[in-house]
Design brief:
The protein is an alpha+beta fold. The protein is 41% helix and 20% strand. The protein contains 5 helices and 4 strands; from the N terminus they run αβαβαββαα. Strands 2-1-3-4 form a 4-stranded mixed sheet. β3 and β4 form a beta hairpin. The N terminus is likely disordered.
Length: 139
C-alpha cells in the first residue's frame, strides 16, 4: 500500500507547476531592436518577427522598440548592437530590474518566446525564422 502511494507522489511531483499568464522567467523589460537599411527600407525579417509577435498576442510583453538605423551610426539600436556584438536584426535585449546591470540578448525570436515568455513555438514557425535568416545571408 505504501509503495503505491509513493508512486502517486512521485508522479505528482514530476508535473510542472503552472505559470501565471504574465509571469516571466527573467525579464522585467524587453526591448525589440529592428533595423532600417541605409536606403531607408525596413528589414523584412524584422517585419516578419513583429507580425509573429502580434499573431502570438505578445505585443504587450515588449516594453520598447528601438531602431538600428544604418543612416545614423549613433542610433540607439546601432549602439546596442555594437555593445552586444550583434550583427543581425532583429534582436531583443532583456533586462531584469533585480539585476539592472545584467542584460541578456536574443537574436532568435522563438528562443526569447520560450525562455522569457514561457511560450513554445511550433516547428513550422522555427523553420520559417531559420529560413528567413538564411535567405537574408544569400541575398
Amino acid at each position: 500500500m505504501f509503495s503505491r502511494a509513493g508512486h502517486v507522489l512521485k508522479v505528482a511531483s514530476r508535473m510542472p507547476m503552472p505559470l501565471l499568464p504574465m509571469e516571466r522567467h527573467f525579464a522585467s523589460k524587453v526591448t525589440f531592436v529592428k533595423k532600417i537599411y541605409s536606403d531607408g527600407s525596413t528589414c523584412q525579417k524584422c517585419d516578419f518577427v513583429w507580425k509573429q509577435i502580434q499573431k502570438d498576442g505578445l505585443v504587450d510583453r515588449i516594453d520598447r522598440t528601438v531602431v538600428a538605423d544604418e543612416r545614423d551610426m549613433s542610433s540607439e539600436g546601432i549602439v546596442l548592437a555594437t555593445k552586444h556584438k550583434i550583427s543581425r536584426a532583429p534582436f531583443f535585449v532583456v533586462n531584469d530590474d533585480e539585476k539592472p546591470d545584467v542584460e541578456k540578448v536574443y537574436d532568435v525570436y522563438f528562443k526569447l518566446k520560450k525562455e522569457v515568455f514561457d511560450v513554445e513555438s511550433g516547428e513550422a514557425e522555427k523553420n520559417e525564422e531559420i529560413i528567413r535568416g538564411m535567405m537574408k545571408q544569400v541575398f
